[in-house]
Design goal:
Layout (H helix, E strand, L loop, with lengths): L2 H4 L2 H4 L18 H41 L11 E7 L5 E7 L2 E7 L4 E8 L2 H11 L1
Antiparallel strand pairs: 1-2, 2-3, 3-4
Length: 136
C-alpha cells in the first residue's frame, strides 16, 4: 500500500512543495560540492588557528623583551648588574664562575653553602671591546 496515498494531502506534501504526484523525493546535492565546502572550511579554520598561535607567540616574545628591558635592575651608579660571563661545573653543586661588572671581572667559587672570591681583575679597554664584539 502506498503510504503517501493514506496520508492527508497537507501531510503528504508540504505547501512549499508541489503535490502533483503525492510522493516526496529528496533532492541530493552533488557530493563533490559538499566535500569541497567542508575541506575549505577545515583549511580556513586551520589557517585561522595557526595565525592566532603565531600572533600570541609574537606578542609573548615582544612582552618578554620589553619586560626584560624595563625591569632589569640597575646599580645605584647606573651600571648594569653583575653579568655571568662563563660558568664551569666542578662537581654536583660546585661551580667556578667568571662574572663581569663594568670593567672588572670576578672569578668566584660557588658551592651549595658559600660563594668565595678567588680572583679580581681589571679589564683593559681592548679586552672590553673584544668581549662586547663576541656577544653580538
Amino acid at each position: 500500500m502506498n503510504q503517501a496515498a493514506s496520508l492527508p494531502a497537507s501531510v503528504a506534501a508540504p505547501p512549499s512543495l508541489p503535490a502533483s504526484s503525492g510522493t516526496f523525493t529528496a533532492v541530493q546535492e552533488p557530493v563533490a560540492v559538499a566535500a569541497g565546502t567542508a575541506e575549505a572550511k577545515l583549511w580556513s579554520s586551520f589557517a585561522a588557528t595557526l595565525l592566532a598561535l603565531v600572533f600570541v607567540l609574537a606578542l609573548a616574545w615582544l612582552l618578554l623583551r620589553l619586560f626584560k628591558r624595563v625591569v632589569m635592575p640597575r646599580a645605584a651608579s647606573g651600571q648594569l648588574p653583575l653579568e655571568v660571563v662563563q660558568a664551569v661545573a666542578l662537581g654536583g653543586r660546585e661551580r667556578l664562575v667568571v662574572a663581569r661588572q663594568g670593567d672588572q671581572e670576578y672569578v668566584l667559587g660557588v658551592t651549595a653553602a658559600s660563594v668565595n672570591l678567588i680572583d679580581k681583575r681589571v679589564l683593559k679597554a681592548d679586552a672590553l671591546s673584544s668581549a662586547d664584539d663576541s656577544k653580538d
